[in-house]
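Why run this: before we spend reagent on co-expression, it is cheaper to look at a predicted model of the complex and decide which construct boundaries make sense. The entries below are exactly what would go into the expression plan.
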Amino acid sequence: MDYYSSHISKLIEEFSRLPGIGSKSAARLAFHIINMSGEQVAALTGAITSAKENVRYCRECYTLTDEELCPICRSAKRDHKTIMVVENTRDLAAYEKTGQYDGVYHVLHGAISPMLGIGPNDIKLKELIERLKGDIDEVIVSTNSSLEGETTAVYISKLIRPMGIKVTRIASGVPVGGDLEYIDSVTLLKALEGRVLMK
Amino acid sequence: MDYYSSHISKLIEEFSRLPGIGSKSAARLAFHIINMSGEQVAALTGAITSAKENVRYCRECYTLTDEELCPICRSAKRDHKTIMVVENTRDLAAYEKTGQYDGVYHVLHGAISPMLGIGPNDIKLKELIERLKGDIDEVIVSTNSSLEGETTAVYISKLIRPMGIKVTRIASGVPVGGDLEYIDSVTLLKALEGRVLMK
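The model came back. Tokens follow.
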């Protein structure tokens, strides 16, 4: 790409390495950077560097946080006897946005995937078992409804049930507002299986 | 967003300011940054900073380049009497990728848009007129086929034709491989108007 300046080519290359950014978006971003003010560019690079340097795992739930204990684990308003297990911090944030869940979380940072060679020891599972030695009422498994998420859910359930702790799994079914005709048949069958009595 | 670390929230905010990046992509990028190695993060921020600091306009054609004169303006193999006028460096790169154009370019860095308050003095138009004082055979106007691009093309043509220089406009029509049934009627009419005799 010698029709671009070498600095721009390098920047496009760096941007293309990020997830979900193809070569066209990378070029668009690179040219946007050139047109930004010096302060804006400094704010962006500063935010990248300080996020990388200062973010760590919460000692309790392993979400990404600035402090030793995340605000959720620190909060006295949360029910510390109910743990929701999620694959990553974005999934935690999705449930926090609902504003209706008042338990705590456990972030696995991945899911078991024999295909990708990710086993139970590659995710924060030992750390979950360690937490269950405390006084816990329920573990809600909220891994994704994918092959890896389901595998992880089954694995966790088999591991935890013998400990006498209640293990639940979030429901699979038709998304609210979803149009049946556009929904895949596996989801439709799951929704049928999981049907509930109308009140 | 207090369920994210403040450093992550800040980074998500910075990423969301970039063009084409919504809040979900920004979060995805931010978490990707946290998982990147320190060297990879340094390479990214370094590329951003050095592109911002080192890239400037070519003295001749105003494309973004590392040196005073861009490789195209410096090249003796190019036809310096034919100037293609484009809106930005990405459009220049698109024509360079064809490998079939051997003239030089002039990058306007925008298009006339009364709607956005961008007038002829806000783009590199005076600089184009200045270049035309030299020995120029043809100006090929390759601004976009949008309202702004067409406005700019008409404006340039009215400005340059009195100087006795040939001004041409790239053809509008059906893209190669395009399926007529999916093409808008304005394009179909343009293609009809611009029809050429078959040999």
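The beta strands of chain A are 56-57, 64-65, 79-86, 103-107, 138-141, 166-169. Residues 36 and 42 of chain A are 10 Å apart (CA to CA). Bring this page to Monday's planning discussion.
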